[in-house]
Amino acid sequence: MSVLQVTGLGFILLSIICCVISLATDYWVSGPEFHMGLWNLCKNKTECSSLPQLEFPPHRTDYTAPIVFLDCARAASILTLIFLVAAVVVQSLVIWFNNRLKVVRKQKLTSGFVFLGVTAEIAGLAIFRPFPGFEVDANDLELSWSYFLGWASAGFSIVAGLVAMYSFA
């Protein structure tokens, strides 16, 4: 068991925690009298409702494009979690069954899962657009702490992938 392997696992777990909190909270965008995340829109700081999902065929075409962006951001965040959990499983196998497995191949697999996860996370954060289904001036919108926690998750994932790559070098 290497210190770098355990450090990489720690960064992956930290990234997962940040990603889950970012995904589950409703503070991706905030403004006067409202805040929203990937799943809910809360008005007057207490009254929350679910954000729409894309329907096939779409009944309203005026909101189709923003809903597609929102659904893609949701899917990318969920893919990030899947890849990071896979990286935790492989990295745990490397750490605890070090003598019985081909460690170098598993470390490369861990790095691959982490970098796929970070790619999905960055794509989801980059394509996220606030849902324009409410009357708010665009100048009143600001990205909030949940959104930036997603970027922190991406940063921790990059560090975890680099540590995993360096540990088998």
Short note summarizing the structure:
With 169 residues, this protein is of the alpha+beta class. The protein has helices spanning 3-24, 64-96, 103-127, 145-167; strands at 29-31, 34-36, 40-43, 47-50, 142-143. It has a 5-stranded antiparallel sheet.
Give structural notes.
The chain has 169 residues and is of the alpha+beta class. Helices cover 61% and strands 9% of the residues. It has four helices and five strands, in the order H-E-E-E-E-H-H-E-H. It has helices at 3-24, 64-96, 103-127, 145-167, and strands at residues 29-31, 34-36, 40-43, 47-50, 142-143. It has a five-stranded antiparallel beta sheet with strand order 4-3-2-1-5. Helix 1 packs antiparallel against helix 2 (64-96). The longest helix has 33 residues, at 64-96. The two termini are 15 Å apart. 33% of the residues are buried. The model has no long low-confidence stretch (mean pLDDT 81). The chain crosses the membrane at residues 7-29, 75-97, 109-128, 148-168. Its main location: membrane.
Keywords:
169 residues, alpha+beta, five-stranded antiparallel beta sheet, 4 helices, 5 strands
* Residue windows where pLDDT falls under 50 for at least 5 positions: none
Portion of residues within helices: 55-70%
What characteristic shape results from the CA principal axes? elongated
Query: Gyration radius, to the nearest Å?
Result: 19 Å
Whole-Å distance between the termini? Answer: 15 Å
Rounded mean pLDDT is 81
Q: Bin the strand percentage.
A: 5-15%
Q: What is the string of helix and strand elements?
A: HEEEEHHEH
User: What structural category arises from helix and sheet content?
Assistant: alpha+beta
**Biggest sheet, strands in spatial order?**
4-3-2-1-5
Number of strands: 5
Characterize the main sheet: 5 strands, antiparallel
Number of helices: 4
